[in-house]
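Appendix B. One record, verbatim.
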Amino acid sequence: MVPPMWKIGDLEMDGRVILGPMAGFTSRGYRDFMEPFGVAASVTEMTSDMGIIHGASRTEDSFVMFESERPTGLQLFGHDPESMAKAAVRALEINPNIAFFDVNMGCPVPKVSRSGAGCVLMKDPKLCGEIVRQMKRAVDVPVTVKFRLGWTASTMNYMDVLEETVSAGADAVTLHPRTRDERYLGTPHYDLIEGLGKELSVPLIISGNIFSLDDAIIAKRVSCAEGIMVARGGVGNPFLVRQIDTYFREGTRLENPTISQQVHWCLELADLLIEERGDVEAMARMRSMGPKFIAGCDGSREYRYLLATETVDRDSLLDLLMEVEHYLGDQRIHVYTFLDCFRDL
């Protein structure tokens, strides 16, 4: 098979997998960890436009001083077109390595919605288009958007948002086929967007419940998307990215990894986070992510609990992981596939 090549604006994507933005996860250390598995591009944690404009140090932590062999996009959230454009210009001044900007129009969290940003933007499709238009005028890198089906089941206006943002110059669109009300619950409505990618003049990136290779295959086949966004499904299962990348390059299905491999990758991630954020904050993040590396295998319940509660420094993490490898190392992880209901589409 020919390696998949497609473009976001003038950026060539060597692969199908886009690493999705996740608050509290997709820091520089996590992105660096995931990239070798076959990520074609990465997107940062969502970043406030006003935080950039006013020079908030915690905001700048999300995008200052990253370099990558693959394109990395900065996800911005805000609601004022002028401020979003100004923030994009300022961000590029601080870090010229930003390859593209992604506008968050899909975050369902009330704190973000109350500020007029995230999914609430979809209530005003023309405003969505104006944000893209002004950002495109201000910067010379691609601008993408990420959004949902709509606010509620009775107000699904994603086609209106698509029309406004694409006509304003968006270089790609990422769609999570749930409404804001659904948050992350239930099965994404891939049936509602069947064939959508063929109708668009820009690439469609599909998002939502990509937890297995089969999920990725089905989501892409139903939606006709160019790209596949891996987010929560890759936390604790980085090999998922390699499985998807290999399948769409070669048509080959790779077996799920062993617990022994997972232990090695878990420690590798921990070391990158320690280097980036220091031992205390890194271990706080590993208490959340560590248990996911050994989920889905027999006899892991107690160890998952210990990883979530007893990981206080690298040594304690290492001791637990070595015990896990000793007792469970030969097992392969099991991954639940969410999209069985679409298998005949």
